[in-house]
Amino acid sequence: MSLTDAAGLPLTLADRDAAAAWDRTVAGFLAHSAATLDHLAETLDKAPDFPLGWAAKGMFYLLLGRSELKPVAAEALARAERQRPPAQRIASAAMSRRWPPIWPGDPSRPPTGCSGAGAAPRGQPGDEAGAWHPLRPRRQ
User: How is the chain split into domains, by residue range?
Assistant: First the structure.
């Protein structure tokens, strides 16, 4: 019998305690809880071969936006990739060949006309925050 998460989605977990810890991880993340990483650590302790848990760890560390944590995030994401079932790896490789990269050419440099990461946003005159937002009408 396969387990599902709180939303009813199938999980690759065999342990009910690990599934409960994963549900607490997701709920904590959605609530911006400081205990989210504790719940994730509990999940990975109970199910060290859970690829979604390792992927979440990698993404959580990337979301912190600190360059010194990039190696931790990269290792977690690499571990998640190694633990994915072979059929998923094949499907992922086929999909990556079908879809072009977000930024063709040098992936470390955004295309011309894009402000890029870390650049000051291009604002409109009179904008309160000085930044243009796609949902805010442009002022003439």
Answer: 16-97
